[in-house]
Write a structure and sequence with these properties.
Blueprint (H helix, E strand, L loop, with lengths): L2 E2 L14 H17 L3 E5 L26 H7 L19 H11 L3 E6 L5 H5 L6 E3 L6 E4 L5 E4 L13 E5 L8 E4 L10 H13 L2 E5 L5 E2 L3 H8 L3 E5 L12 E3 L3 H12 L8 E10 L2 E7 L8 E2 L1 E10 L2 E5 L7 E4 L14 E8 L8 E5 L4 E10 L4 E4 L1
Parallel strand pairs: 2-3, 2-9, 3-4, 6-15, 9-11, 11-12
Antiparallel strand pairs: 1-10, 5-6, 5-8, 7-8, 13-14, 13-21, 14-18, 16-17, 16-19, 19-20, 21-22
Helix pairs in contact: 1-7, 3-7, 5-6
Pfam families: SIR2
Family: Belongs to the sirtuin family. Class IV subfamily.
GO molecular function: histone deacetylase activity, NAD-dependent; metal ion binding; NAD+ binding; transcription corepressor activity
Length: 393
C-alpha cells in the first residue's frame, strides 16, 4: 500500500554540488552507464518541476521556480506565490530530463523506467508504454473494473473534487462488458497496481545500475524498488536536491537539478537530446463507406487514446464542398452514402477529414485527405508547439 514517512529537515534542506564536484560525479556515473548491462531509471516529482508542475516536499526557501511543495504550503497554511512558474499537467511540456530518457531508451541504453508521477509526462515525452511502470497511476488513464481494458485520455480522468471516488462516470466500450471506468490514480493507503509493481521489482532484480531522479524515496512500497538494487549489491545512484533515507546505501549521491544531471550525462555520452514534439497515432478504417477514426497508444495498439473533440468529414471538388457531415465526437464513426450525393461523373471528388484536437498546446485543426478505397491505416502526426505546425508520417 502507498504510504509516506513524516517530513523532517532532511526533506527540506536543499544541497547543490559545486560545478567541479558535479562534473566528477557525472564522469563516474557515465562510466557506470557505459559498463551497465541493465540500466534502469526511477523518477519522482523532481523530474517535472522544471515543466511547471510543483513537487510535494520542497521547503519554503526552495530555489525551484515552482516554489515550495504542495504539502509544505499546506502544512504552513501558505498560498503559492504569484511569482511561481506553475502549469497544469495537461499543458506541461516534457523536460530536458524526460527527453534525455526517451533517447537513451530508444538507443537501448536504458532498459526500463519506473515512475511515481501521475502527470503523464513520460508517456507524452515518447517513452514506450511497454517500457514504463507508473506506480501511482496516470491522471490521463482510466480502466474498466470488470475486464481491465485501459483507456488513455487527452484530459484528466479524475472527476474534480472526488479524490476517493475513482468512478469517472464513463463506461467500457466493449459491448460484452459495459463495466464502469475508474481513474488510475493511487491515493495514500491504496494498493499499487500489481502489474506495474511486479514489473518494477523484476527490473530491479535484473539491474546493475539504477538512477533515481527527483524522488525523496520516502514513499513505500515504491521506494523499495531502488532499495532492492542496493540490497543486491548493485549500483544505486540518487540524483536529488535533498538527502534521502537511502543516501548511505547509494554508491553515489548527486545534488543537482534533474535537467542538469541528464544534460551532463548526455553531453559526456555525446548523445544529442531530441526536441519534444507531440506525437499522435490515429487508426483510420474505411469499409463500405463507413469511416472509423481511433486514437491509439504509440506502443500498444490495444490501448485506445481519446484525442479528438470532433471530426468533420467532407466531400470536395477543388475548393467546392458538396457534402459535409455533422460534427462527430469520439468514437468517430460515420457512414457516408456516396451514391446519394449527386455529382457529375466527369468531376474528381476528394474525401477529407478535419480533425479537432483537445488544444492543450494550441494545436490547430488538421485536415487529412482520405482514400475512397476500403482499407486500414495508421497515421502518425507530429506537432511542434513552438511553430504550431503539424507534420505527418
Amino acid at each position: 500500500m502507498a504510504h509516506g514517512i513524516s517530513d523532517d529537515d532532511l526533506t527540506k534542506k536543499e544541497i547543490y554540488d559545486a560545478p567541479d564536484v558535479l562534473d566528477k560525479k557525472l564522469d563516474q556515473l557515465v562510466e557506470w552507464i557505459k559498463a551497465s548491462k541493465h540500466f534502469i531509471i526511477f523518477t519522482g516529482a523532481g523530474i517535472s518541476t522544471s515543466t511547471g508542475i510543483p513537487d510535494f516536499r520542497s521547503g519554503m526557501d526552495t530555489r525551484l521556480s515552482t516554489g515550495p511543495g504542495v504539502w509544505e504550503l499546506r502544512d504552513k497554511g501558505e498560498a503559492r506565490s504569484k511569482k511561481a512558474t506553475v502549469t497544469s499537467s495537461t499543458k506541461a511540456i516534457p523536460s530536458v530530463a524526460h527527453m534525455a530518457i526517451v533517447e537513451l531508451a530508444r538507443q537501448g541504453i536504458i532498459k526500463f523506467v519506473i515512475s511515481q508521477n501521475t502527470d503523464g509526462l513520460h508517456l507524452r515525452s515518447g517513452i514506450k508504454s511497454s517500457m514504463l511502470a507508473e506506480l501511482h497511476g496516470n491522471s490521463n488513464l482510466e480502466y474498466c473494473q470488470k475486464c481491465g481494458i485501459k483507456y488513455l485520455r487527452d484530459y484528466r480522468t479524475r472527476t474534480a473534487g472526488k479524490v476517493h471516488d475513482h468512478n469517472t462516470g464513463r463506461i467500457c466500450t466493449n459491448s460484452k462488458c459495459n463495466g464502469s471506468l475508474l481513474d488510475s490514480i493511487i491515493n495514500f493507503g491504496e494498493s499499487l497496481p500489481n502489474q506495474e509493481l511486479t514489473a518494477g521489482f523484476e527490473h530491479a532484480n535484473k539491474a546493475d545500475l539504477c538512477l533515481v531522479l527527483g524522488s525523496s524515496l520516502r514513499v513505500t512500497p515504491a521506494a523499495n524498488i531502488p532499495e532492492e538494487v542496493a540490497i543486491k549489491g548493485q549500483k544505486l545512484v540518487i540524483g536529488n536536491l535533498q538527502l534521502t533515507p537511502m543516501a548511505s546505501i547509494a554508491k553515489l549521491n548527486i545534488h543537482a537539478m534533474c535537467d542538469e544531471i541528464m544534460n551532463g550525462i548526455m553531453n559526456k555520452l555525446n548523445i544529442p537530446i531530441p526536441n519534444w514534439e507531440l506525437h499522435r497515432r490515429i487508426r483510420i478504417v474505411i469499409q463500405s463507406n463507413q469511416i472509423t477514426m481511433t486514437g491509439l497508444d504509440l506502443d500498444q495498439e490495444h490501448i485506445p487514446y481519446s484525442l479528438f473533440t470532433q471530426v468533420n468529414v467532407s466531400l470536395r471538388s477543388g475548393t467546392s464542398e458538396v457534402y459535409k457531415s455533422k460534427p462527430l465526437k469520439e468514437p468517430i464513426s460515420h457512414k457516408i452514402d456516396l451514391t446519394s450525393i449527386k455529382k457529375p461523373s466527369s468531376i474528381q471528388y476528394d474525401l477529407y477529414a478535419e480533425i479537432h484536437f483537445q488544444g492543450h498546446y494550441n494545436e490547430p485543426i488538421y485536415t487529412l485527405k482520405l482514400p475512397f478505397v476500403d482499407q486500414q491505416q495508421d497515421i502518425h502526426l507530429f506537432y511542434d508547439p513552438k511553430t504550431r505546425i503539424w507534420r505527418q508520417e
